[in-house]
Amino acid sequence: MLASTLRAASTAAVRRCTSSSSAAALAIRAYSSADSDFNYYQHKKVAMTGPRFEQTDLAQQPNPTPAIDLIAQEPVRKVNTHCGPLGHPKVYINLDQEGPHKCLYCGVRFEQEHGHHH
Predict the structure, then answer these.
(1) Backbone angles phi, psi at 34, to 5 degrees
(2) What predicted TM-score, i.e. pTM, was given to this entire model?
(3) What angle do CA 64, 65, 66 make, to 5 degrees?
(4) What parts of the sequence cross the membrane (predicted)?
(5) Neighbours of 28 (CB within 10 A)
(6) What are the pLDDT digits (tens) for 67-112?
(7) DSSP string, the chain
(8) Burial 85-118 (b: 16+ CB within 10 A, else e)
(9) End-to-end distance of the chain based on CA atoms, in angstroms?
């Protein structure tokens, strides 16, 4: 509907044009012969593809190490007693099996010291 209205308006404008304004008449004729599927909301064929702001450079933005990676770098804590949590949340972590065991809350790994008797 918008295309037909624009085409009708441009045709009427061309009829009113005098010979002295032939450049304007040619521009209006060129517009009126545009594709019939023109729509105001249609995407433009040439769109901006770069960042929205020139100042945005992701290489210069802060990129902190995620907490899960920091916990993974923490060394395994060796435990040589069954005395309790010792600076850890009050949860029981079964260390009877060999190897490190991760706390379900904080991710810190604990391991029973080798040679320690149960």
Answers:
(1) -70, 170
(2) 0.43
(3) 110
(4) none
(5) 19
(6) 999 999 999 988 887 666 556 667 788 888 889 999 888 888 988 8
(7) -HHHHHHHHHHHHHHH--GGGHHHHHHHHHHHTS-TT--TTSPPSS---S-SSTT--GGGS--PPPHHHHHHHSPPEEE---S--SSS-S------SSS-EE-TTT--EEEEPTT---
(8) eeeeeeeebebeeeeebebeeeebbbebeeeeee
(9) 86
**How many other CB atoms are found less than 10 A from the CB of residue 10?**
19
* Confidence at residue 40, expressed as pLDDT on a 0 to 100 scale: 66
The pLDDT of residue 62 is 78
The burial of 77, by beta-carbon neighbours within 10 Å (0-12 exposed, 13-18 middle, 19 or more buried), is given as middle
Q: Where are the domains of the chain?
A: 64-117
Q: Residues 6 or more apart from 36 whose CB is under 8 A from it?
A: 3
* Residue 87: C-alpha distances to residues 36, 63, 70, 84 (Å): 75, 30, 19, 9
